Amino acid sequence: MDVVLLGTGSPIPHPERAGPATLVKAGGANLLIDAGRGVIMRLMGAATPPPALSAILLTHMHSDHICDLNDVITTHWIMTPAPMPLKIYGPKGVAALVEATLAMLAFDVRYRMDHHDDLNAPPQVQAIELEPGDAFTVGGCAITAHRTDHSPVHPTLGYRIEAGAASVAVAGDTIPCPELDALCAGADVYVQTVIRRDLVERVPSQRFQDILDYHSTVEQAGQTAARAGVKTLLLTHYVPPIVPGQEEDWRALAAAHFAGAVVLGPDLTRVSVAE
């Protein structure tokens, strides 16, 4: 199992960090979790072109997590030699999101079908809405959806992916909650979006201050990892962006609460676990 941070950024644009997205390569499947800005370029950087995707799993519908979903749909469609359905899983509302995205793409779809004789059908996209507790399989992966707490954003989901003896919990945006502990329990890798409260509090903007009540801090991510007994904590979605040279400062905040491995880094940071 390979867990790849495709995008470690946030709504704050950054020249070197793409928007939130994680790739899990396991059980013969390629699973894309969220589709933030620049995700197609990062997929190519991870040697996983869009036609190789087995499914997309969305944690929620905040713009920074879905803004390049249209690019994934289009590129998957035009790079696939024969029609290939693309399954997009997510919380309630994902069907409406996919329908609206396809409506937005209608002009482009018509132009391409008019121009290319071998494109004789529009993108085949299947949206599957999930409730917490739902379980399904993709390839050799067993996947379960878990409630997370990103209030007032609702509903939101995290995903536990298991293949052979390996497991990863991808939490998305959330604060600590009992359901998050259950999602992560005993996982080999726990992927958590994080903020630095001490740095955010220095910014004199109420809009920026508002993010403090619905994201996990680095310290809270370490505490969750310790409670859940995970092996590796993989941090992403850094707010504010990590200043080069300060990586160890971030790591130390989590390590003060968690004795396991704490991994953070640039886009395309990878953690591997034997299946």
Summarize the SSE layout with pairings.
Blueprint: E1 2-7, E2 21-26, E3 29-33, H1 39-45, E4 55-57, H2 63-66, H3 69-79, E5 86-91, H4 94-104, H5 106-115, E6 125-130, E7 135-138, E8 141-147, E9 157-163, E10 166-170, H6 178-184, E11 189-195, H7 197-200, H8 206-209, H9 218-228, E12 232-239, H10 247-255, E13 261-263, E14 269-272
Parallel strand pairs: 3-4, 4-5, 5-6, 10-11, 11-12, 12-13
Antiparallel strand pairs: 1-2, 1-14, 2-3, 7-8, 8-9, 9-10
Helix pairs in contact: 6-9, 9-10
Give a quick rundown of the structure.
The chain has helices at 39-45, 63-66, 69-79, 94-104, 106-115, 178-184, 197-200, 206-209, 218-228, 247-255; strands spanning 2-7, 21-26, 29-33, 55-57, 86-91, 125-130, 135-138, 141-147, 157-163, 166-170, 189-195, 232-239, 261-263, 269-272.
